[in-house]
Amino acid sequence: MMRDALRSIFKIRLSDRAVAGLALAVVGLALLAIGSRDPRTHGLGVLCPSRRWLGIYCPGCGSTRATYDLLHGDIIAAWANNPATLLLGVPVALWLVASSVVTLVHGRRPRLTLPNRLGLWLAGALLLYTIARNIPHAAFDAWRPPVVHETSGS
Fold first, then answer.
1. Using CA atoms, how far apart are residues 55 and 9, in angstroms rounded to an integer?
2. Phi and psi (nearest 5°) for 30?
C-alpha cells in the first residue's frame, strides 16, 4: 500500500526492500526526534486538532509524551499519558518494524492474517476509550492524559 502511494506521488518504481528501508529510516528519525526533547517542556508547537477545535481528547492524545517516556524507560508515565499507546501502538509499531526488517532481509513482505472482525472490534474499543476519557467525572480521570500547558504537543 505504501509502495503504491509512493509510486503514484513520485512516479517512480520502488522495490519492497527500498520501501522497507525508507520506512525504517523514517521511523528511526521520528523516534530520535521524539526521544531527544521532552514534549512536556519543549512541545511540538501543535495541539491535537480534536482537543483544539472540539475540546475532546482523541485516542491519540498523549501519545507523543507516552512515546518519549517509553524511549526513556518510564512505563508508568507512558501509561499515564496514553494507555492505548502501550496496548495498541507498541504492538503495531513492533510488527511494522519487524515486517520491514524481514522485507529487507528476504526481499518480500510477510503476510499478516487477522480475523475479519478484528478491525471492527478495535474501532469499537477506540470509540469507547475516546468516550471514557472525555467523561467529566473523577472516576475517569485516569483515562485522560495529564494536563500540560495548552500549546504543547500531544
1. 34
2. -65, -45
For residues 90 and 16, give the distance between their C-alpha atoms in angstroms, rounded to a whole number: 23
Contact present, 59 and 130 (Cβ < 8 Å): yes
Q: Flag whether 150 is in a domain.
A: no
pTM for the whole structure: 0.76
What is the spatial distance between Cα 131 and Cα 58, in angstroms, rounded to a whole number? 9
Residue 154 lies in a domain: no
Mean pLDDT, range 29-51, rounded to an integer: 81
Residue 153: inside a domain: no
Q: Is residue 89 part of a domain?
A: yes
Q: Which residue range is the domain that position 53 belongs to?
A: 2-143
Q: Round the CA-based radius of gyration of the chain to a whole number and report it.
A: 18
**DSSP states of 76-94:** HHHHHH-HHIIIIIHHHHH
pLDDT tens readout for residues 47-88: 778 888 888 899 988 888 999 999 999 999 999 999 999 998
